[in-house]
Amino acid sequence: MIPQDTLEQIAAANDIVDVIGSYFPLKRAGPTFKALCPFHQEKSPSFTVNPQRQRYHCFGCGEDGSVFDFVAKYESVDFPTAARRLAERAGIHIVEEARTPGEDRDLRTRKRLLAIHQQAAEWFHQLLMTAPAAKGARSYLRGRGLTGEVAQRWKIGYALDEWEALGSWAAEQGYTREEITQSGLVSRRDAENPDSDFYDRFRDRIMFPICNDLGEVIAFSGRVLATGAQPAKYVNSPETPLFRKGDVLFGLHKSKRALIDKKSAIVLEGQIDLITAFEAGVQNVVAPQGTAFTEKQARTLKRYAEEVILCFDADEAGRKAAERSLPALLGLDLGVRVIELPPGEDPDSLIRNQGVEAFKARADAARDYFEYHIDIEAASPDFTTPRGKVKAARAMASTVLLINDRVLREAVAGRIATRLAMPLSDFWALLNRSAKSSRPTTGATPQSTAAVQTIAATDPIGQLTLLALGDPAIRRWISSQPWSGNLLEMEGAELLVKILHGDVSLDEPGSVAAFAAGLGAPEQALLNALLRERLPENRLAAAIDCWGAVEKRELLQRREALKARMRETGISHGEITEIQKQILDLQKLITDISRPLSPPGLE
Question: Are residues 394 and 506 in the same domain?
Answer without folding.
Answer: no
